[in-house]
C-alpha cells in the first residue's frame, strides 16, 4: 500500500479563453483548475486489458469520468477483493467513489477521458485483492 497527497496548487497555470492542448499519449495530465475547489485533466491509460490492472486507487473524494474518445473501461472494486468492469459510454459521465483503475481495450492510450476531481485530496493505492469494503473514509 502507498499513499499520495495532492495539495494546492495542484494544477498548472493555464491560458484562458483559448483551447487547451493536452500532450498525448500520456496516462494522466492535469490541464487546469480552480484553486481550493476542482481540477480537470485528461486520462488515457496504457493498460489494454483487465489483467494489466494490478492495483486500484481510492481517493477520499468523488472523481468524475467522461469519455472523450476511443474506448475506456473502468475497473471498479466490488468490495470483496474482486472487481467489476464498466465500459464508459460517450456523453454519460460516471461519478466514482470506490477503488478503481481503467484500461483501453483497443490498445494502450486507445481512449481518453476528461476527469474532474478536487484540488486537494489523498489517494491510496493497493493491489486489487487488498480492497475490502467498507472502504476508508
The poorly predicted ranges are none
Tally of helical runs: 0
Which percent range describes the beta-strand content?
over 45%
Overall mean pLDDT stands at 94
Order of helices and strands: EEEEEEEEEEE
| Widest sheet, order of strands | 2-3-10-5-8
Q: For the CA atoms, what is the radius of gyration?
A: 15 Å
Q: What is the helix fraction of residues, given as a range?
A: under 10%
What structural category do the secondary elements indicate?
A: mainly beta
Terminal residue distance: 16 Å
Q: Tell me about the largest β-sheet.
A: 5 strands, antiparallel
How many distinct beta strands? 11
Shape: globular
What does this structure look like?
0% of the residues lie in helices and 46% in strands. It has a five-stranded antiparallel sheet with strand order 2-3-10-5-8, with no helix packed on it. It is built from no helices and eleven strands. The protein has 137 residues and is mainly β.
